[in-house]
Amino acid sequence: MSLQGQLSASISSSSSAFLAPSVFINSSRAVNVSVPSKRLGVCRCVATPTEEVTAYKTTVSRNANIAKLQAGYLFPEIARRRAAHLVKYPDAKVISLGIGDTTEPIPEVITSAMAQRSYALSTVEGYSGYGAEQGERPVRAAIASTFYKDLGIEEDDIFVSDGAKCDISRLQVVFGSDVTVAVQDPSYPAYVDSSVILGQTGLYQKDIQKYANIEYMKCSPENGFFPDLSTVARTDIIFFCSPNNPTGSAATREQLTQLVQFAKDNGSIIVYDSAYAMYMSDDNPRSIFEIPGAKEVALETASFSKYAGFTGVRLGWTVIPKQLLFSDGFPVAKDFNRIVCTCFNGASNISQAGGLACLSPEGLKAMHEVIGFYKENTQIIMETFNSLGFKVYGGTNAPYVWVHFPGQSSWDVFAEILEKTHVVTTPGSGFGPGGEGFIRVSAFGHRENVLEACRRFKQLYK
Ligand SMILES: Cc1ncc(COP(=O)(O)O)c(C=O)c1O
């Protein structure tokens, strides 16, 4: 195969990474890696100017809030670096423990329900078009009884969706641009990025790597990954994720009780992200609604993505209790309903058939097995880094291991690991300035890949 052909093959098999000339930075040296900047496989004439002249521009101004966003979203940036690495090492067996996408097949008890629903769509009796925007009744009822039994959450408090990330953005549309937000630092990037897009923030301040007008609640080993609320400024909205992505830490009942009280004292709304609740091993709350009084100050978003391998199928849900009111007494759920009806149109009926199967006794058993498999991966990764003398956090209650590299730049560590082991991790600073000096290693991977990655880590750090 020609060199151009090899490059094309190795890149096109990766992701939708933005392909541009890039500099691959390593702590000890910098290597220029040039990859084709436009369509691969298109042979360009030597005389083609590198700068393409745009012939026509509309008169529409770019959304100034989107223009505030820094570089790419974290994971496309990682995919870009992975692609550049493959150009440099076309034969490398790259192992990805980075983005946090699931790898194991969906249990058949779940896919067979989706297949049946899918085939039924080809029959007159089984066909259905638009469904209820809030989700199908049986799915809402099954979510309520499976995850919120005895917590006073009713089926009509539940909105079934195409995933937690999508709901986070829809919630931001509900809140609008005039609210202030707080996030754990580090945190899942969608909270900050959606906040910037909605215009809730000021500009990015490069020196401190923070957006103006966002309250970053530092979560580090020093405070047990729970923010010191006495130093946190009041905001309208508080995004809080437990078990946490990326640190893998989970808040205790006492800590969540403090958080609910803090929200109540400040008149704030907590957006509680419980996307990893089923990974909890310790006796911590799996839902914010386990905390008395939370229904007046919190809503919760969750997902089937990491329980059943639904990252591609797409199904999640958001719980908004009737008791949660805006300052004028209007229910938050009613405004969310309006946004769901306007901007969404309900989750796919096939995905919902899968979701219902997930919540059957056999489906629940199968999900626990999938989660158990990833938790074994987590153990293997934790043991590896522990044996190498690193300080390792998370893991027990989440599929993420948070490894400390004190005094080092996360991107340098990420680059060194990729360069020397061909393993993709995630640099902690990509989740906020509080993640500097850490890398996140995801437990989502085939067992042989996790074992191989750990063998390579042992060689690198022995
Ligand atoms: C904390 C957190 N929330 C939400 C999501 C997105 O979930 P979904 O696939 O349901 O959109 C993720 C995915 O990685 C996540 O880590």
Automatic annotation (TrEMBL):
Its cofactor is pyridoxal 5'-phosphate. Residues 93-457 form the Aminotransferase class I/classII large domain. InterPro entries: Aminotransferase_I/II_large (IPR004839), DapL/ALD1 (IPR019942), PyrdxlP-dep_Trfase (IPR015424), PyrdxlP-dep_Trfase_major (IPR015421), PyrdxlP-dep_Trfase_small (IPR015422). Signal peptide: none annotated. Keywords: Aminotransferase, Pyridoxal phosphate, Transferase. GO terms for biological process: systemic acquired resistance, salicylic acid mediated signaling pathway. GO terms for molecular function: pyridoxal phosphate binding; transaminase activity. The keyword DNA damage does not apply. Belongs to the class-I pyridoxal-phosphate-dependent aminotransferase family. LL-diaminopimelate aminotransferase subfamily. This is Aminotransferase class I/classII large domain-containing protein. It comes from Trapa natans.
